[in-house]
Specification:
By secondary structure, the chain is of the alpha/beta class. The chain has one domain: TIM Barrel (Alpha-Beta Barrel). It has twelve helices and ten strands. Helix 6 links the parallel strand 7 and strand 8. The N and C termini lie far apart (60 Å). The relative contact order is 0.16.
Length: 265
């Protein structure tokens, strides 16, 4: 009896080891134009800080993320919640982007009240081609289109087991979004297939471990947001996979004006 239990345990551990090996060692192809986004608090740094933006860039992320809020006077600042203390002005983040024309910025919109000031500010710093929005729900799409026409955006979506993915993709396309932004645990191979068939992008957040990254990458999203961009790029994706991925898909989805500063692949 003891032998049988030991044998069963050994067999179970063998299966588990094989699964881990598959997730951790197998190289998965990534979609053309695949990008890594550095989370606004990457490497445990203070969220929505210039330090975190610069760290993400240094780690090799193609995109940096920060949250957008507005002060009582309407000044755009980097903050997740309604600002109650001094925050980094959005102009400082744009000044940083100006020094890195090959980097894009994912502006996670937390408040649309004064969104109309963003296009002029971006134009003043020459970073309009580098920015796009996330955090956009269906009920504030109209405000985005009215106040910031021409700035690409992802639609946030809450996926559940009974979601009609075809209908969702049609809805995203009808609203003029470039794709969908979802939690990594909500991703499925069918979702990426449905969206890619309609030339829409799939972005996931927030993936911070090697195991979860392997799992998510096996389903071929177009972007992964992570607090560990170095881990995703260095340990998860091989240099060969990144080189083979190219930049085609990103260039197809975003307009020429929004990708003219992307590096040649």
């Amino acid at each position: 009896m003891q032998f049988n239990l030991s044998a069963r345990f050994g067999a179970l551990m063998t299966v588990f080891s094989c699964l881990i090996s598959f997730l951790c060692l197998t190289e998965f192809p990534v979609p053309a134009g695949f990008t890594v986004t550095a989370h606004t608090g990457c490497f445990g740094l203070k969220e929505n800080s210039i330090e975190a933006i610069e760290a993400g860039i240094k780690a090799g992320a193609q995109i940096v993320e920060f949250d957008l809020q507005f002060t009582d006077s309407g000044e755009p600042v980097l903050s997740h919640d309604v600002p109650e203390e001094a925050c980094v002005p959005l102009s400082d983040a744009f000044a940083c982007l100006q020094k890195h024309p090959h980097i894009r910025a994912n502006i996670d919109v937390k408040n649309t009240a004064h969104l109309e000031c963003i296009p002029a500010l971006a134009q003043a710093y020459g970073v309009t081609p580098q920015i796009f929005f996330t955090g956009i729900e269906a009920d504030n799409v109209a405000a985005v289109l009215e106040k910031c026409p021409g700035i690409p955006y992802y639609l946030n979506a809450d996926i559940h087991p009974f979601t009609d993915l075809n209908a969702l993709a049609e809805h995203v396309a009808a609203l003029g979004a470039v794709g969908v932004n979802i939690k990594g645990v909500k991703l499925s191979p069918r979702l990426t297939n449905v969206f890619h068939d309609r030339n829409l992008l799939v972005s996931v957040w927030t993936i911070d471990s090697r195991l979860s990254a392997r799992y998510v990458l096996s389903m071929q999203p177009d972007n992964v947001t992570t607090r560990r961009p170095d881990l995703i790029r260095t340990y998860i994706l091989s240099k060969e996979a990144l080189i083979k991925s190219g930049c085609a898909r990103g260039r197809e989805i975003f307009s020429a004006d929004c990708t003219k500063n992307l590096p040649a692949c």
